[in-house]
Amino acid sequence: MVQYDSVSMIASPARQVLFKQQEVLQRAAKIGSCILFSRRIRMRISSTRLATNPKVSVSPLLSSLILQSPYAQQPQSRFRGRFLHAMASDSPQLGVTNGKPTYQPRYIDIGINLADPIFRGRYGGKQRHPDDLAAVVQRAKDVGCTKLIVTGSSFKSSRDALKLSQEFPGTVYSTAGVHPCSSAIFGATHPHHHEAEDDEHTAACDPDPEKPVPADDEGTPDLQKTEQIVADLDALVRSAGPGLVAFGEFGLDYDRLHYCPKKLQLHSFSHQLDLVVALQKEKLEFPLFLHSRAAHADFVSLLKEKFGNNLSGLARGGVVHSFTGTAEEARELMDLGLYIGINGCSFKTAENCDVVREIRLDRIMIETDGPWCEVRPSHEGWKYLVEDAKRKAADEEQVAAAAAAATVDGNSQPPATDAPTEPANGDVKTTRQKRPKQQQQPSKKGQKKASEVPERFKSVKKEKWEEGCMVKSRNEPCTIERIAAIVAGIKGVSVEEVAEAAWANTTKVFQVDA
Q1: Model pTM?
Q2: Contacts of the segment 167-170: beta carbons below 8 A, 24+ positions apart
Q3: At what angle do helices 60-67 and 21-30 cross, to 10 degrees?
Q4: How far apart, in whole angstroms, are the C-alpha atoms of residue 55 and residue 89?
Q5: How far apart are CA 510 and CA 110, in angstroms?
Q6: Where are the annotated segments for Disordered (predicted)?
Q7: Among 345, 141, 325, which Cα is nearest to 251's?
């Protein structure tokens, strides 16, 4: 049964509300308002009912009254997120803990480099620990991240990503394209054909300050090689099968020109967009998985050149992932109908967080971009994880206190005890104050302080790898819950609202099974 203070509704097997709207209005009138709730709303859902009826049916009138209540109008109202989630036609099942509904989050990591050999235990070409990719995927599922889109950033990683989609069907999906940092293969002086790529690792998200940056006009495209690369990419896309859900990752990255000069990046991006246009004419339509770093003007200019000023020629839309641009750039991308992907790199500075605050929920997607882009204590966004941890701890204390109070109230006749009785005057407070306090044990020398943000999974250095543990500094998709928590903290909304908005946006664009 679902109970709302003075209003009760039963979710029948037919998912119908047994109370008529007139009866609901009468009950609302009894509390002196057309708004049903003037205090905190308590929701209790029978787990048995939800097992067979995960979608609770509520009349539009009642829903409107609920959402107009003062409590539900609060920006960070957890109830609002839970209620919207419960009312959604495609909502997953709610859980129940201690008689209270518990939202079971669901996430899709839109950008995870699972094809990187780091997730197989290989670092710099050397096997440092056993292959634990299956455990990485399972940890993601354990936090509700049931869909992973593996980024293809070169021919090798694109093929490896497609293999992973076959290894983990229904969970892992893939993209295919040539990343701007991998676009040197289009150059006349590149020593290797793309089939013989010798760099097995994906590019880190941060630029390398020690690498020399070429001149803007450096890098001569090889037209014959370009023709072959585009033909091979075309063949890869056509033969990919259902695991392929997007074209990319491709775009422009002027922060890391040491990987590929600007001229070659523009050449690579332009020719891959031409392939998208050609494939669309044959009704082979894919959304775009885009990359734009410190190159917004050129990036948008090329998109408009290929698909029109409002991108009306782009059949399935796209997402600009790992966004670190300005608020003005974000607004232009949203106005063009594109989505924006947020990960740990989006929270480094206060300015970054201000930008995230401006990104609309109906245009947001979330990602980890592992094994890179983890959220670090030095990031501005870390403080929102600290606040979230404190809030959860406070909630747990309230639940524990309520449970203890309920236990005391339920014992009308406490069992006899040999313990000393309280004073006749009933001064219990005085007696309790006289009890000696337990002495706190001094901390051992060198003992590490507990993290202000608790880790869900133990993490160890790769040299001390343990089965079931995360590897330090190897970002995993299970950390996507931190991305959602930070976005929620920045925007002043609930985690539920962020998770559900991102889920809806992602399933709409990439059409992964809901």
Answers
A1: 0.75
A2: 168/137, 169/243, 170/513
A3: 30
A4: 7
A5: 9
A6: 193-221, 402-457
A7: 325
Q: How many CB atoms lie within 10 A of CB 171?
A: 18
| Per-residue model confidence as pLDDT tens digits over 295-341 | 999 999 999 999 999 999 999 999 999 999 999 999 999 999 999 99
Q: At a CB cut-off of 8 Å and minimum separation 6, what does 10 contact?
A: 1, 2, 17, 18, 49
* Size of the chain in residues: 514
Could you give the angle at the alpha carbon of 178 between the alpha carbons of 169 and 147, nearest 5°? 25
Distant-in-sequence, close-in-space partners of 20: CB < 8 Å, separation ≥ 6: none
- Name the phi and psi angles at 114, rounded to 5: -65, -15
| Contact call for residues 46 and 1 (beta carbons, < 8 A) | yes
Give dist(CA 405, CA 398) in Å, integer. 10
Task: Compute, in degrees rounded to 10, the torsion defined by CA atoms 264, 267, 269, 275.
Answer: -140
The pLDDT mean for the chain works out to 80
Nearest-angstrom CA–CA distance, 91 and 110: 20
Residues 6+ apart with CB under 8 A from 115: 150, 151, 152, 156, 157, 160, 161, 164, 202
Find the Cα–Cα–Cα–Cα dihedral 249, 301, 278, 154, rounded to 10°.
-20
Helix or strand holding residue 227 (H, E): helix 223-238
End-to-end Cα distance, the chain = 27
Domain limits, the chain: 2-104, 107-383+504-510
Largest separation between any pair of C-alpha atoms in the chain: 99
Domain 107-383+504-510 in CATH 3.20.20.80: no
* Type of residue at 292: S
The owner of tokens 């694109």 is 158
CB–CB of 53/94 below 8 Å?
A: no
Q: Which tokens sit at 144?
A: 């509700």
Instruction: Tally the C-alpha atoms within 13 A of residue 276's C-alpha that lie toward its C-beta.
Output: 32
> Each residue of 382-400: pLDDT tens digit?
999 999 999 888 888 888 8
CB atoms within 10 A of CB 138: 13
Q: At CA 381, angle to CA 376 and CA 387, rounded to 5?
A: 105
Q: Are 110 and 503 in contact (CB under 8 A)?
A: no
DSSP state of 426: -
